[in-house]
Design a protein that fits this description.
It is a single chain. This protein is mainly alpha-helical. The protein has a single domain, classed as Amino acid/polyamine transporter I (Up-down Bundle). Helix content is about 75%, strand content about 0%. It has a two-stranded antiparallel ribbon with strand order 1-2. A hairpin with a 2-residue loop joins β1 and β2. The longest helix has about 35 residues. It starts with 10 loop residues before the first helix and ends with a helix. The model has no long low-confidence stretch (mean pLDDT about 85).
Length: about 475
């Protein structure tokens, strides 16, 4: 047997520097850009508009728990070269039922829901910018405004699909970082200028109960917001930070392209790893150095996501909450323009450009992530070693599935497909906290079964994964019950 499984880690992993950390950030930038779109711009702002700063702790907690979930997974694939989905499917107690029922099926069900909701949100916002309002005219089965919104969403989706087919991973990472940079700078300027109460912010970061809607919400939004309970709102907020299993399945697969540790190079069983370490002690040191790569990538991306999310909650509580404005219906982005408009009227265009780039980045990155989701599913259940031709076909068919499924949901009447918010809620309930929690417990199982003792998660990380699994599963169960019985 070859006693050299791991290559020597690069200098940036052995001696960490700021420049080296920036060089490592890759897949994390994509997952951040995918979630910094509808999650932060819409749902975080909506939380601030409805509850002020009282639910800041929910976003902080959700981002931290999901960061733990993702790191435990990227760590595993870096050490073994094997995706957790494959590991679950070769674990006797989990084989077939766990990965299919709780990971694969929810993932592929939720994909078109997310694409359709995000594209329509941006489509109707563009109509607002061009002042294309309601009209009594009808175009086929649709009203004029609905038809134009659907048409705009279709153009956006098709454009992002074509861009994703023609663009490589490195360019995608750069675009993602660029989009996040624009948003972050703009938000920081707005928050500093508004001077929110630091005492209220700190109090909001302390975990507490979920408050009821304020009386004015029942008066002004009885037909929109209060048709769902506060627990349905909470389900949205839980998935607003960092996404859900539909994102992570492909995100972990992206690690293969970075060639960290064994990821994208080879795979090793528990027995092979133990034999390697016994014959070459240096290999164990190298393996432990390699896990710094996914740790830094995950920590930096989720820290950025949490920061942007909290900034949007603070802006929502400072600007929208006092004026009793809540993003609802098809106009989920327009009310937030005042965030930067308060600085200077022309700053509204910074927000508009940022919104456009953020949502394009979300759709653009999602195509790449979901292709990897399908690739990992095929690897886990059918083919371990795939030809380049098969990989190209899987990627194309996955993109077409997302595109066609989203277009069907967009063009179907709302009585069949639901409105934008309803689809977002369903996507959150199906692929959000509940499946994320079960994912954590699955990681704890394969950590023990498939890793040698020297490479298993430490006590602190193990406790963190247990905590993440318990909290996310519990909150997910509450949200599921409320959604289907409320």
């Amino acid at each position: 047997m070859n006693t050299k499984l791991y290559s020597k880690p690069p200098k940036i992993l052995r001696k960490l520097t700021f420049k080296g950390i920036l060089a490592l950030i890759g897949p994390g930038a994509i997952i951040a850009s995918v979630t910094i779109g509808s999650g932060e711009l819409v749902w975080a702002s909506r939380s601030g508009a409805l509850f002020g700063t009282e639910l800041l702790w929910v976003f902080l907690l959700a981002g931290t728990l999901k960061g733990v979930q993702v790191y435990s997974s990227t760590r595993y694939i870096t050490l073994t070269g094997e995706h957790p989905l494959t590991a679950w499917n070769r674990t006797r107690a989990l084989r077939w039922w766990f990965p299919l029922l709780f990971i694969v099926i929810p993932t592929f069900f939720a994909m078109p829901l997310g694409f359709s909701g995000i594209a329509e949100t941006l489509g109707f916002y563009i109509l607002r910018l061009f002042q294309i309002g309601e009209s009594d005219n009808a175009l086929g089965f649709w009203g004029f405004h609905e038809f134009m919104g659907n048409f705009t969403a279709t153009i956006i989706l098709m454009g992002c699909f074509l861009l994703s087919v023609a663009t490589d991973l490195k360019r995608l990472e750069r675009i993602s970082l660029f989009v996040m940079g624009i948003l972050l700078v703009s938000l920081l300027i707005a928050v500093v200028t508004l001077k929110p109460s630091m005492i209220e912010i700190l109090e909001g970061l302390v975990p507490g109960s979920v408050p009821d809607y304020h009386p004015w919400v029942y008066e002004k939004y009885s037909d929109t917001v209060v048709t769902r309970s506060k627990w349905s709102e909470l389900a949205l907020y839980l998935t607003a930070v960092g996404g859900g299993t539909y994102d992570y399945l492909g995100y972990v697969g992206l690690i293969r392209e970075k060639k960290w540790g064994l990821a994208g190079r080879s795979t090793a069983t528990k027995e092979e790893l133990e034999r390697t370490f016994s014959e070459n002690s240096l290999q164990l040191k190298w393996a432990k150095k390699w896990v710094n790569a996914p740790l830094l990538d995950t920590a930096s991306s989720f820290s950025l996501v949490i920061l942007v999310t909290l900034l949007f909650v603070i802006l929502g509580s400072s600007v929208l909450f006092p004026s009793q404005q809540v993003p609802v219906g098809n106009d989920l982005l327009g009310t937030q323009e005042v965030f930067l408009g308060l600085l200077h009227p022309n700053m509204v265009w910074v927000y508009r450009i940022g919104v456009f780039l953020a949502f394009i980045g979300t759709l653009y990155g999602a195509f790449e992530i979901y292709r990897h989701s399908m690739l990992e599913t095929v690897r886990a259940f059918k083919v371990r070693h795939m030809s380049k031709t098969l990989i190209r076909k899987i990627r194309l068919y996955t993109g077409l599935y997302c595109l066609i499924g989203a277009l069907l949901l967009i063009w179907l009447p709302e009585t069949l497909s639901g409105n934008i918010v309803d689809r977002m809620v369903l996507s959150a309930v199906v692929g959000g906290a509940f499946t994320c929690g079960l994912w954590c417990f699955g990681m704890l199982i394969i950590n023990t079964v498939h890793l040698p003792k020297a490479l298993r998660m430490g006590k602190l990380l193990t406790l963190a994964v247990y905590t993440a699994g318990g909290i996310l599963t519990f909150l997910g169960c509450i949200s599921l019950w409320d959604y289907f019985t409320g």
